[in-house]
Design a protein that fits this description.
Radius of gyration of chain A: 21 Å
Oligomer: heterodimer
Structural class of chain A: alpha+beta
Largest sheet of chain A: 5 strands, antiparallel
Largest sheet of chain B: 7 strands, antiparallel
Strand order of the largest sheet of chain A: 4-5-9-7-8
Strand order of the largest sheet of chain B: 15-12-14-13-17-18-16
Radius of gyration of chain B: 23 Å
Structural class of chain B: alpha+beta
Helix content of chain A: 25-40%
Strand content of chain A: 15-25%
Number of strands of chain A: 18
Number of strands of chain B: 20
């Protein structure tokens, strides 16, 4: 059945979500769970009987800047939340990518979607991922039960940390109805150091050197020449960029220190705060690959091995997370891509292409993951087929 | 503290169990005699004691697998143990259970500076990780106060924190992966050296699972470059409210200090009498604010903090001028527990977290409760993240005082939950707060957690009696019928 032909339910309360999921379970129906629906193309749900959209559960329930805590319904739009916390001089520390244009999607990405996909931007190397800022939640499990876990304070070890389990579970375990995240003060200023013309291996070495210096690097990306040549940069050679954020005097000192540590890698340049901000949005949104055709892969590897991915595979790459995240446009055989990445100690997710998005797990880990899925959703009501696990 | 009724038939099989374990771990690796078992009777929560059936100290992952598989096949309960420093009774033995001690897994296997991580065995102490890499300019960030003794395996089990977790996070934010042996004896690898792992984030669930889901046999920890410098400020205030408001103002100014600690007057006085750190003993509250980073940053931020403290009426402000002075500022705080131990025969440490804005109210209520219970209390507080450590003073030799202290502690934790906080910020639930879980979670919330337990350990043999107030067999959890939030839960006996 075509997705568009499915009925979409848009509950306006957690109680309605509970009723919809419980009824679906009782009737043996399966639900596709979406927030803004902007990431629907990743890991397609092929056999749902209806769509459950959380877009109308979009209220901010509590935001206490002095406590560094924000509680909202999962359908709250990322863009709205970014404005809300910015007005208080704060930020979403994990810098969630929106990816609308990368995926050619329409609509507004939501906080629930960013958490369910555990999507994190360039600042991940310093501040951590979405999962690291996900403090607690309320949800409806596939069994049709309303439950909660975690808390609404920044430090808590009471009970299992099920927020981590929800982060990156792509809605296959439970439907989030309320989430609490940690926010942080926004940096007063930032600066970006640029290096030009480095090959991928040398760029990874530059990024590692910067990461290993006590400068609290908050962004490390490399655009090989073929990637830098694309819009929006349209540059003539490869670009390697390093970001520093913080208070003015501190950023200036760290930039000096970093430039000295890296002076063997050629003459650099600097982006001031305004240009730096714009540049890192381009990196976060993978703008160089907007409008690109063909399979798109999001590859996670140990950072020092990043350059080996593009060395072994055909295509065009963009490196983030100091080499730990590789966006790859590649026509190579999916099996070859997964085998290459696996041998480097990483894994690959296909964001666009004619192959299952998520890498199937093997052995006892696959069985364990299936038991975890069954613990929350034994009948497979939620997002059937979206992940390998469920 | 009631534990599950011991299985007398298993206890009668002790000799057979010891022999079976000796076949798996030959030599000195199995302890069965009464005197040898004494050191394992309790952990950091020494009010509770129990002699285990036996102790096994494996040296290899293969031995851990074989021990767990044998125990599962024979229905023998297992209590994993690191250094035994848990403050919540996480490693409290069971009379009919085997303690699985991981002390012999004490090697740093690999240091990988290119990927800024280290692969270590679980029995390596927290501080030993930093010691192994600090000459090269790196460290492991989480620093629980017991870091000289506590092991990384125990840190993973408890999701341990420390004074620097406001800026650097808890254990869960600083571990990348692990090798985990399930109760079945199967081995799974979770995470790795990369940032994202495939599949569900089981590493995130195992971290802080208090030894109920599996036994960690290797851990990949994240290493950070050592900050260039660190500076501490010691700020005295005439009221707790002024100190609390200062904490809020520091964070509102966009400063996230590496450490942000508060002590109340009884804690200040006890610490000063113990170590002579130069604390202002007349102050109602003391803040220690640590800033780290480049010298220029520390100076700039110290200026901001000083101005904020002045505006809030600080009665004393000292800024460390040397590394020796910085360490002296910390000496009192780090010695707060033993210092309090000198003013009362026994103390009982609580660990709730509250929204910081509730601090004045909560401290006032704690003082009132202390009066009504007739017990003293000193408060130390990870003020930046709202994690409160009231130390209840009592004398275990006085009949009824331990019970009074426990009741007082329970009242404090209930208060923490009532104001929007949680039962435990970093010490874990263990046996200590097990029966308070109902304050935070309803039966459905707990059933969801216990089903995760069942996915890892369907026979409930790993560390039973901890964390969950009731033991439900996994089959019963599967049958729980819930529709539209109405829970029809079979009323099972409390143990």
């Amino acid at each position: 059945m075509l997705k568009d032909a499915l009925k979409t339910e848009r509950p306006t309360s957690a109680d309605q979500v509970l009723e919809l999921v419980a009824d679906a379970g009782a009737a043996g129906r399966r639900l596709e769970i979406i927030g803004g629906g902007t990431k629907r193309s990743i890991g397609r749900v092929t056999n749902a009987d209806a769509v459950l959209s959380l877009a109308k559960l979009d209220t901010v329930i509590d935001y206490a800047p002095e406590e560094l805590v924000l509680t909202a319904q999962p359908g709250a739009k990322l863009a709205d939340l970014e404005r809300l916390v910015a007005a208080e001089g704060q930020m979403l520390p994990f810098e969630p990518p929106h990816l609308i244009r990368l995926l050619g999607a329409k609509g507004d990405p939501t906080l629930g979607g960013a958490l369910a996909a555990n999507l994190s931007g360039p600042r991940r190397i310093r501040a951590g991922a979405a999962r690291d800022h996900f403090l607690g939640f309320e949800a409806v499990t596939g069994r049709g039960e309303a439950m909660k876990a975690g808390g609404k304070v920044v430090k808590n070890v009471t009970g299992y940390d099920l927020s981590k389990l929800m982060a990156g579970s792509w809605g296959t375990l439970a439907v989030l109805t309320e989430v609490t995240i940690k926010v942080l003060p926004a940096a007063r200023t930032e600066v970006t150091l640029l290096f030009f013309g480095l090959d991928d291996a040398k760029a990874c070495a530059v990024m590692a050197t910067a990461m290993n210096a006590p400068v609290e690097l908050s962004g490390a990306t490399h655009l090989p020449a073929a990637t830098a040549a694309r819009a929006p940069l349209k540059g003539e050679m490869a670009v390697t960029a390093l970001r520093l954020e913080g208070f003015e005097a501190s950023v200036a000192t760290r930039a000096e220190g970093l430039a000295i540590a890296l002076k063997g890698f050629g003459q650099g340049a600097q982006l001031d705060a305004e240009h730096s901000r714009a540049f890192w949005v381009q990196v976060r949104e993978v703008e160089a690959f907007h409008g690109a055709k063909g399979p798109l892969w999001r590859i996670s590897v140990p950072p020092a091995s990043g350059w080996r991915v593009a060395e072994a595979l055909a295509g065009v790459a963009l490196y983030d997370w100091a080499g730990g995240l590789v966006w790859l446009l590649s026509q190579d055989d999916p099996a070859k891509i997964r085998a290459t990445v696996g041998a480097l100690g990483g894994h690959a997710v296909c964001y666009r292409g004619r192959t299952p998005a998520f890498e199937p797990l093997g052995g006892p880990l696959a069985a364990l993951s299936a038991r975890v899925k069954a613990a929350f959703d034994p009948k497979g009501v939620l997002n059937p087929g979206r992940m390998a696990e469920g | 503290m009631r534990m599950p009724a011991p299985d007398q038939a298993l206890i009668a099989r002790k000799a057979e169990i010891v022999r079976a374990l000796q076949r798996i771990v030959p030599g000195e690796g199995v302890i069965g005699d009464a005197s040898g078992l004494i050191p394992f009777q309790s952990d950091g929560l020494s009010a509770y004691r129990q002699t285990p059936l036996a102790v096994v100290l494996p040296e290899t992952t293969a031995q851990v697998c074989a021990v767990l598989a044998w125990c599962q096949a024979n229905g023998v309960k297992v209590v994993p143990r690191g250094a035994g420093t848990s403050l919540s009774g996480g490693a409290l033995p069971l009379q009919d259970g085997v303690v699985l001690g991981m002390a012999k897994f004490n090697r740093v296997l690999e240091v990988d500076y290119e990927n800024r991580c280290a692969l270590v065995q679980p029995g390596v102490t927290n501080l030993a990780i930093t010691n192994a890499v600090q000459a090269d300019g790196f460290y492991y960030a989480p620093d629980p106060s017991s870091q000289i003794a506590c092991t990384i395996g125990g840190n993973v089990a408890e999701n341990s924190g420390g004074v620097h977790c406001l800026k650097y996070g808890l254990t869960t934010n600083n571990v990348l992966g692990c090798e985990l042996v399930l109760m079945s004896g199967e081995v799974v690898r979770l995470g790795g050296k990369g940032f994202d792992a495939a599949g569900y984030d089981l590493m995130g669930v195992v971290t802080g699972s208090e030894g109920l889901l599996g036994v960690v046999t290797e851990v990949t920890v994240r290493l950070l470059p050592t900050p260039e410098t660190a500076r501490a400020l010691l700020l005295g205030f005439p009221t707790v409210e002024a100190a609390g408001a200062t904490v809020g103002d520091i964070i509102a100014a966009g400063v996230i200090p590496a450490g942000l600690e508060m002590m109340d007057n009884p804690a200040i006085v006890a610490a000063e009498a113990f170590v002579g750190a130069g604390y202002p003993t007349e102050a109602a509250a003391l803040l220690i604010v640590e800033l780290d980073g480049p010298e220029a940053e520390c100076s700039e931020l110290a200026g901001h903090v000083r101005a904020i403290a002045n505006a809030r009426g600080a009665t004393s402000i000292q800024v460390s001028q040397s590394e020796a002075e910085r360490l002296a500022f910390w000496a009192g705080r780090k010695a707060a527990f033993p210092a309090v131990g000198r003013i009362a025969p026994d103390y009982y440490c609580m660990d709730g977290t509250i929204p910081r804005r509730q601090l004045p109210h909560v401290l006032t209520r704690i003082t009132e409760m202390a009066e009504s219970y007739g017990l003293g209390v000193a408060n130390v507080f990870h003020a930046g993240d709202g994690n409160l450590h009231p130390l209840i003073l009592y004398d275990a030799d006085q009949p009824g005082q331990l019970e009074k202290a426990e009741a007082f502690g329970a009242d404090i934790l209930k208060l923490c939950v009532a104001v929007g906080g949680v039962l435990t910020g970093e010490h874990g639930v263990g046996v200590e707060k097990r029966d308070l879980m109902g304050e935070m979670f309803n039966e459905t919330d707990l059933a969801c957690q216990q089903r995760v337990k069942c996915a890892f350990d369907p026979d409930l043999l790993l560390n039973p009696g901890k964390v969950f107030p009731r033991l439900h067999r996994c089959a019963e959890l599967g049958r729980v019928h819930v529709h539209r939030g109405q829970v029809a839960f079979p009323e099972l006996p409390r143990f």
